[in-house]
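Exercise (ungraded).
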Amino acid sequence: MNEPVLARLHHLMTLREEVETLSSPVPWTPAADWTDDDAHLCLQLDVPGVDAESLEVQEDGETVTVAGQRPASERLLRGERPSGIFRRTLTFPEPVRPQSGQASLVHGVLTIRFEKRHPTISVPSSDLGREEQGE
Amino acid sequence: MNEPVLARLHHLMTLREEVETLSSPVPWTPAADWTDDDAHLCLQLDVPGVDAESLEVQEDGETVTVAGQRPASERLLRGERPSGIFRRTLTFPEPVRPQSGQASLVHGVLTIRFEKRHPTISVPSSDLGREEQGE
């Protein structure tokens, strides 16, 4: 007997979830690259439209945390761009010197350069013998 | 009898696909917002790290196409950021005046502003009666 009421409730709850999904901002997880240039590790993070003033970078021994935000577009007709606050903690791919990070923000890309604790000594690859591991 | 050979072949093909997936760049579909400011429609596209010189914008009556590229990071240790060429064709949410687009690229966000064919006349919402539609 209560089934129509329950179905109606369920329908209303689904509608509410859909409305909440529509109104909440798209989650904001900026894409990151780690690159290596022998003496440094570089972190690059895509943060288009984020003010330098809103960015915070914190480093502990093993990880670096980047936080920031950008305002949501107003009078949105169709929206895909994430907005609001983001916070990402990334683990260093290899050990870096504490407090060696240097950050810059250019064309919406945040680059942070860390000194490696164990810089790589690069070896030119020409005329080197090839070693193969047996299976 | 041929089954071990087939299984081995299948395994090799799977491996090859995995290697190709790893080496191909992350697909590049910049997120887009459409906003409305009464007289204009604005398209905003997240294109961090893309040079203005590499951007191309083309408008036909119903759609606008944006293309561009950014180079892949070199000596990548861990990569999430898309790279290479992108091309997106977006349909105008409502009619715009042909050739009215004005583009700017700021902090990695491409903004293109189009004049609406039918500008909205905004009405202040205070003291307006509320109408409700019956079910």
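Further reading is listed at the end of the chapter. For now, observe: Strands of chain A lie at 32-36, 40-46, 56-59, 63-70, 76-79, 84-91, 102-106, 109-115. Chain A touches chain B through 31 residues (CB under 8 Å).
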